[in-house]
Amino acid sequence: MNKPADISVEHAYPSEAELVELVRDYDPSVDVELLGKAYNLTISAHGDQMRHSGDPYYAHPIEVARILAGLHLDVQSICTALLHDVLEDTDISYDDLAGMFGEEIADLVNGVTKLGQVELSIPNASRQRQQAENFQKFVLAMSRDVRVLLVKLCDRLHNMRTLQFHPKQSSRERIARETLDIYAPLARRIGVDRICSELENLSFKFLNPSAFESINKRLDSWRADQRTAISQMSVALRDLMDSANIQARIYGREKRAYAIWRKLERQGISFEDVADIYAFRIVVDKADSCYRVLGLLHGHYRCVPGRFRDFISVPKSNGYQTLHTTILGPENKRLEIQIRTERMEDVAERGVAAHWTYKNESYAYDPDRASDSGGDPLARLRPFVEMMEQSGDADEFLEHAKLEMFADQVFTFTPKGDLISLPRGATPLDFAYAVHTKIGDTCIGAIINNRERPLRTRLQNGDVVKIIRGGQAEPRPGWESMVITGKARSALRRLTRASEAQEFRRIGLMLAEHAFAREDKDFSESSLTDTLKRMNFETHEDLYEAMGRGNVSIQQFMDGVFPGRKETTSIYDLSKRDFISDKTAKLYVKGDGLTAGVSLHFGDCCSPIPGDRIVGIREPGKGVVIHTIDCELLEEFEENQDVWLDIGWRRSVQHAASTGRVTATLEHVPGALADVTKIIGEAGGNLTNIKTVSRSPTFFDMIIDIEVRDNRHLLQIIAAMRASTYVVSAQRTRAALET
Fold first, then answer.
1. Are residues 253 and 183 part of one domain?
2. Is 545 a catalytic residue?
3. Residue 264 burial by CB count (10 A; 0-12/13-18/19+): exposed, middle or buried?
4. Which phi and psi (to 5°) does residue 673 adopt?
5. Which residue in 88, 525, 567, 573 is the catalytic one?
6. Residue 273 has pLDDT above 60, yes or no
7. Measured by CB atoms within 10 angstroms of the end CB, which terminus of the chain is less buried, N or C?
8. Does residue 491 contact residue 429 with C-beta atoms inside 8 Å?
9. Is 89 among the residues known to form the active site?
């Protein structure tokens, strides 16, 4: 029994002839002259440069090329590995590379070139933002050619193998954390398991050295204890295959320290309870034989219920295909068995890199192949590109990308039978965005397994999901909390940002019109041409949005329009604000006006509902907060008249549900609460929340949230409650209900 081997770990870098032979083993038609030219250029270009380890710098790109050769990449990728640092660290230019090696290799090298490395001296917040921006650029580069990612992963792998030579511990930990958070998940995403697992293990070694050492000591002890049993099981499996005349290659794989650590951490178990420290892999010639071997094993050994997974008929999104089962071996010890074909083995180890092995073959569905090894190698990375296009900034993109990379999967289907793989815990809204962004934007409901279900429903393996669509894409309050995929969250935030911008422009335009009215002048956009230049805005919309967001005050706007003017009295006469009505309002709630939850927020201090006379207060960066006209909080804004907005209720939506709050005192007798809820229901209200504030032997006070159409509807319900023999008092309250 051997420890899991790293990929071609050597102390001496390969010579030119050795590297050529490594490539020739899987590509007999290798362009030896091209490869030799790249090999010699990296040596001459890096010259006397040295690494922290004391090795010549050119040993690093040569080692990266060796790792890529182990993945059987094409000669262009090997040359890129040899040259990947020359643009940044030497005097060689892109044009020089293009002249010597052609544009394809020059573009690949340019894509891999380190992107604005983070300086250790800058503050943590700035460093994190720089990392996010670098990752954004990285995704853009690898979206053009996935070989950029493969070279970068191998570059990071060799750097991690030599990280112990870095002089600063803080730098070692930062690089290891970045590797664990970004590079290892990306390697898993494209199915390169051998690189992913080694990156994880090396990162673990530097981030938690005591745990790393402890688990490896336990592994050494476990290995010594189990050597004989594993050897006997290996012979038993070989005899079982021979007895059934099945040609199979059988070998074992041992779990690495980091994988064991994660299992202990997630499942809260002890080392002795880990059932798959060692697993056997049975590799056969075709998919039918995989199922035949499975039947043979389950017929000869007892299987562990719930431990069988079929990734052949339903492959993972990174192309992984294998049958997993756990059996009870000698002394009733659990033993994991993985069954796959040689081709599945190749794709499981090399992931998207296997694309270059099979790219010249005609591709059609074949159960003996990994699901997309011969298809589009960029398919697994496109969600990141879509998220990058929709995210507002680099930090948000990195947040969403991590969500996408760190999730276990659940497999669902469209009504036509197309497979949609999602993170475990995903909802129909995640499903809608996974199918297409436009479907997610217009989703209003879902049918799961022929039954209409709430959009918050957690999807299960095998669910068939049909999305119900509406006609218009618009953000809905609270929907972001319903999704867990990065793609869905970034799309929902994009919708919110677009709607916010539109509404802030509407608010800004209204403020501009009011400002002109205060000066007794007619408003026209043509009069703002010079203003835009003075205030450094490109378009009228940009100016309106800045005013709506509170970044430009009315005072600043008017100074920009009429330089040297004398300030006049505000159009907002606070003593007359009681007369603001729906007819005189300039902005409206809902309808074609402002949308609650986007740029508009209802104040918890007074809980406005349709029918109440209301006023809007602009809060910079947040939007408009709606208050009832008699809200006590408005006194705080008496001196700042520029933040006031005339707001009204759009009559066409007077019947939309809003939440009113009632404080009631009930007799403490059986049936009192039941009578109150019955009254609310019969009056057409919907009780959404209830809280007992105080209780005595004879009475108890309650705060009740009720969905109503408008303030008149709420007053009708309150009147009906007062008529109950159980209700001592009931009145509308302005206080927010604490849960």
1. no
2. no
3. middle
4. -65, -40
5. 88
6. yes
7. C
8. no
9. yes
Please report which helix (H) or strand (E) contains residue 144, including its range. helix 124-144
Find the mean pLDDT for residues 21-35.
90
- In the set 6, 16, 27, 89, the catalytic residue is 89
CB 332 within 8 A of CB 340: no
Do 627 and 504 share a structural domain?
yes
pTM over cut 0.90: no
What digits encode the pLDDT tens for the residues 546-576?
887 777 777 778 778 777 666 554 444 444 4
Which run of H or E residues covers position 470? none
Tens digit of each residue's pLDDT (9 = 90 or more) over 448-468: 988 888 888 998 877 889 999
Instruction: Tell me how far CA of residue 709 lies from CA of 26, 642, 651, in angstroms.
Output: 73, 32, 12
Of 52-61, 160-169, 493-502, the range with the lowest mean pLDDT is 493-502
Domains held by the chain: number: 5
Q: Is the pLDDT of residue 369 over 60?
A: no
Which among 626, 653, 680 is the end of a domain?
653
Residue that is last in its domain, among 471, 492, 513: 492
Contact indicator for 258, 198 with CB cutoff of 8 Å: no
Q: Give the C-alpha separation, 673 to 628, whole Å.
A: 30
Q: Provide the H-helix boundaries in 162-309.
A: 169-178, 184-189, 193-207, 209-243, 257-267, 287-300
Q: What does the pLDDT read at residue 504? A: 81
454 three-class SS: coil
Alpha carbon distances (Å) from 98 to 47, 105, 145: 21, 7, 17
Give the domain CATH number at 484.
3.10.20.30
Domain that holds residue 712: 658-732
Q: What is the CA radius of gyration of the chain?
A: 33
**pLDDT tens column, 491-536:** 888 887 777 787 788 878 877 877 777 677 777 777 787 788 888 8
Q: Is residue 367 part of a domain?
A: no
In a domain, 374, yes or no: no
Q: Measured between alpha carbons, how far is residue 188 from residues 390, 403, 685 in Å?
A: 24, 14, 52
Q: Which residues contact 557 (CB under 8 A, 6 or more apart)?
A: 511, 512, 515, 531, 535, 543, 547
Within 10 A of 646 (CB to CB), how many other CB atoms are there? 20
